[in-house]
Amino acid sequence: MRKIVLLFLLITNFATAQIKVGDSIPSIMLKSSDNKEVNLSTLKGKYILVDFWASWCAPCRLGNKKLVKLYNETNHDKFEIVGISIDKDASKWLKAIVKDKIKFTQLIDSNGFDAETAIQFGVDELPSKYLFNKEGILIAKNPTEEELLKLIEN
């Protein structure tokens, strides 16, 4: 019985940790690809697309090509992309950034799906995307490219 109660508490805590539409961007400090500390909660004032990915994830790498194209074609005063890798090997992450020609902000939380950031966001598959408005409020999970383009153009 005790194991069941503990499991229930673990599941309940995990479920409440997941960010929901209407929640604020969490205050999480992560290291960037240029070795700077970045706090996610400071990224307000424009639409922010947070993209969880990993170097070993084939769909993520294909998605990177689309995000690079989108980033290169958008006004960065209104819209920004932030990649968060859950790679356990930072050297593979850095090589993927170069190979995929990613110029937008890249952060890493190198504990895989057990990473604090992945748990807080509720990431259970890759890639996973979270769109925040200018006030830092989550407005969409896994928005389509069409939804992003419509938002950016308005």
From TrEMBL:
Q: What positions does the domain Thioredoxin occupy?
A: 19-154
Q: Does Disulfide bond count among this protein's keywords?
A: yes
**Would you name any one GO CC term?**
cell envelope
Organism annotation: Flavobacterium urocaniciphilum
Principal localization reads other
InterPro entries per record: AhpC/TSA (IPR000866), Thioredoxin-like_sf (IPR036249), Thioredoxin_CS (IPR017937), Thioredoxin_domain (IPR013766), Thioredoxin_ResA/DsbE_sf (IPR050553)
Signal peptide boundaries = 1-17
Q: Which Pfam families match?
A: AhpC-TSA
User: Is Ribosomal protein there in the keyword field?
Assistant: no
Q: Per UniProt, which keywords does this protein have? A: Cytochrome c-type biogenesis, Disulfide bond, Redox-active center, Signal
Where is the protein localized? Cell envelope
Gene Ontology molecular function = antioxidant activity; oxidoreductase activity
Q: Which GO terms describe its biological process?
A: cytochrome complex assembly
What name does UniProt use for this protein? Answer: Peroxiredoxin
